[in-house]
Write a structure and sequence with these properties.
Length: 264
């Protein structure tokens, strides 16, 4: 497997240029939409294909949360193809969450009452705000069903520390606060700002000392190459200064990047 990945990404390149996210933001705004497939399926169109194997025990379980049909469709197919190629003997499942409550239910107990191996998040969810908006009272009920608890960071009917808006950092922090131990990657148009992530995480950790060490996000991948580049930037670790170890996959194929993220 390592040899196959090595052939895929080659020698570790110099850090590619990824535009930084401004302070206070989690990810760059989307610069350019993906080409819309001739008939990009909605969540409802993608789900039946997944439900056929929903009761089969899965060795590897991935959950995707995105607010645009064409993006979740592309990420779903790239992840499914990557797992089929890299884990041909394993029973795998790639599920698309229908909203924030479904995301937490699937991530915390969707695989035979076990947690998902990987969650793939978008940077923000402004396209379907209501569907992805984390409401404290509703989300607490979902988390309790999985035998976890978010009450230490709930005040009244809202989450503390400005965790009430749907974006990748807030959802990552809420998943970690709820006890999710799997991998979280952001598949977006830019890289999460590690300074902002660390600052916000430290604030939550004051109320929740049991929050796991390090960043709540394990890495990222951009969704497609920037117009003047023929590669996809990604990272699965941070350096000694806490910044992303940027790497790249030549050719700009999201499936190739997924083979790396999902086998990290």
């Amino acid at each position: 497997m390592l040899e196959r990945i090595g052939r895929l990404i080659g020698r570790k390149p110099e850090a590619p240029v990824v535009p930084p996210i401004q302070a206070g933001q989690v990810a760059l705004p989307i610069e350019q939409e993906l080409p819309t497939p001739t008939k990009a399926p909605s969540i409802e169109a993608v789900q039946p294909r997944q439900k056929e194997s929903a009761e089969i025990p899965h060795d590897y379980f991935v959950v995707i949360a995105d607010d645009r049909d064409e993006h979740r469709y592309a990420t779903h197919d790239a992840a499914e193809a990557a797992l089929s190629a890299s884990r041909p003997e394993a029973s795998v499942s790639v599920r698309v969450a229908a909203g924030v409550n479904d995301l937490f239910s699937l991530a915390l107990s969707g695989n035979r009452k076990q947690q998902a191996n990987v969650v793939l998040l978008d940077d923000d969810y402004g396209n379907e705000f209501d569907r992805w908006n984390p409401l404290a009272t509703q989300l607490q009920k979902v988390v309790e069903e999985a035998e976890f608890d978010l009450s230490p960071i709930i005040e009244g009917t809202r989450f503390r520390h400005n965790l009430n808006a749907p974006d990748s950092l807030n959802l990552s922090l809420l998943l970690r606060a709820a006890g999710y131990d799997g991998k979280i990657f952001v598949v977006s148009s830019g890289s999460p700002n590690t300074d902002v992530v660390k600052m916000r995480t430290d604030r939550v950790r004051k109320d929740l000392p049991t929050l796991r060490e390090g960043l709540p996000i394990d890495g990222f991948s951009i969704k497609r190459p920037y117009p003047d580049r023929n590669y996809i930037s990604y990272a699965t670790s941070v350096d000694s200064d806490g910044d992303w170890n940027y790497e790249k996959v030549e050719g700009g194929n999201l499936e190739d990047t997924m083979k790396i993220l999902l086998n990290t």
